[in-house]
Specification:
Length: about 220
């Protein structure tokens, strides 16, 4: 859904999804409409966070999810909001704003969340710092995690992304890359659902079917 694969059968009206990188709330509105669940959004872009709350009626909080505590510089891409991102602290310019940055483990209790059924991370490269600084114990309480690693945009980050995958796997997860470039990775917590060989075969089939479908689409664009 919106480029993020997860197990829909696990999502019920009582489920809680934490959407890091809510952007314009398209993913949140779709899952809320389909499953009737609660979605808590975390969005670093102050303008989008405000629009999500006031214009779209979404539960959205203005934080930059990152690997540290404190104010961070955030570059707002007004033409393509999905490309907005955390930048170096020395950055200046009309498109640079200051946002409160916090780790995922700090933010979750601040937004009144006790249990997470699905964690979505789509935060334009900051996912690496987030995963590196979060504890395995934090991850181990979550049934499934959907991550868009941005290594496909910056090849130098591929090694760090692979290390992050190993970190989450060490917390008891099995990972599935549905994009073939780390852009759509699903982590399934074995504590909640022990994937069988049949499940792994199915997910592998879906991975390559998705890849073939994207190739066909690009060929005809």
């Amino acid at each position: 859904m919106e480029g993020h694969t997860f197990i829909g059968n696990w999502i019920t009206p009582q489920s809680v999804i934490v959407d890091c990188g809510m952007n314009e709330g398209v993913f949140a509105r779709r899952v809320m409409g389909k499953y009737g669940c609660r979605v808590i959004g975390i969005e670093a872009n102050p303008g989008l966070a405000e629009q999500n709350r006031t214009d779209r009626g979404l539960d959205c909080h203005n934080f930059a999810v990152c690997g540290c505590e404190g104010v961070v510089k955030f570059q707002v891409d007004h033409a393509h909001s999905m490309n907005s991102r955390i930048v170096d602290g020395a950055a200046v310019g009309p498109d640079i704003v200051e946002v409160q940055g916090s780790t995922i483990e700090t933010i979750v209790p601040l937004v009144n969340v006790t249990n997470i059924d699905l964690l979505k991370l789509d935060i334009e490269g900051a996912e690496i710092d987030v995963i590196e600084t979060a504890s395995r114990e934090f991850f181990s309480r979550i049934p499934q995690i959907a991550v868009e690693f941005h290594a496909f945009l910056d090849k130098s980050k591929k090694s760090s992304a692979i290390d992050c995958i190993k970190t989450i796997e060490s917390a008891g997860f099995t990972s599935f890359d549905f994009s073939m470039n780390l852009g759509n990775v699903l982590f399934v917590n074995q504590k909640f659902y022990r994937t069988s060989l049949l499940d792994i075969g199915y997910f592998t089939f879906e991975k390559y079917r998705s890849g073939i479908r994207r190739t066909i689409t690009k060929t005809h664009e």
